Amino acid sequence: xxxxxxxxxxxxxxxxxxxxxxxxxxxxxxxxxxxxxxxxxxxxxxxxxxxxxxxxxxxxxxxxxxxxxxxxxxxxxxxxxxxxxxxxxxxxxxxxxxxxxxxxxxxxxxxxxxxxxxxxxxxxxxxxxxxxxxxxxxxxxxxxxxxxxxxxxxxxxxxxxxxxxxxxxxxxxxxxxxxxxxxxxxxxxxxxxxxxxxxxxxxxxxxxxxxxxxxxxxxxxxxxxxxxxxxxxxxxxxxxxxxxxxxxxxxxxxxxxxxxxxxxxxxxxxxxxxxxxxxxxxxxxxxxxxxxxxxxxxxxxxxxxxxxxxxxxxxxxxxxxxxxxxxxxxxxxxxxxxxxxxxxxxxxxxxxxxxxxxxxxxxxxxxxxxxxxxxxxx
Length: 378
Fold this sequence. Notes:
The chain is mainly α. It is 74% helix and 0% strand.
């Protein structure tokens, strides 16, 4: 049993590394789609993502959620808002990468947890611990320093961070699983995206049919590039602790930052290094506080779990149900504490998961490029 558990944990970790690795290396992919412009690439991504997830859902025969969603206009409206916001996020990111702003795009991924926390306070009226307030303050100072360094506000980073934080807030209300959510959002995006591609073709600006079969295949693969990391993330989410996912999420912006500096050769004058250093300090404070809170909660609830298990009679004893229920409750409380520390809540698996109101610091979630909320988990 222990061997199986260790094997599952290893599989989950490898899937997590694969998911965040792909999201981190995706800046290498978008330039391959030139001479297509950012808007055409975005439209293809919407169209082919729907095709890919539709096939996946057909294979696993998971369609019941669609009928329920169509009978709930309010949720459907929220999905439409989520689709609009993630469209902005995807579009700005693709444009930023193909326009030589990979480092600034990576900054958006770094500051996203801070923006998510700030929105939780301002919109959801949540309370923060002192260290979290300090992290938000350091993050705000970083934006001021970077504004001086760039000679303008880092609007690419801020757009990516705020659009995805808004996306997360909306998705928290919708409560759909990762693949189902992507299917619903791309279904809403599909007709406008297809209409734009047809319009572009009519005006002679579509590169899909004019740049060779290799170019067309790359544009079609945008659906795979969008959905495959999400599948890996889903496999990781049910096998590794949420706190581990919360730490793994930083791989994506780290990879993107390194690609921007080392591969694309983007400039990093001292004032930008200073701004990024402040952002990283804020994330260290945030992560450390979340992990300490998680360990403290586990230590507090641990004795209750042990006592409950000791009190549980054998399975043949009718009273055993009480002890088992108490033990299960204690286990759930420990998991909930870990979930709160990671920024997500609920059970692992294919079903949709509700997000906890408290945003405590380390969202156990993919990067914004994933199209999955930092407040939900597939």
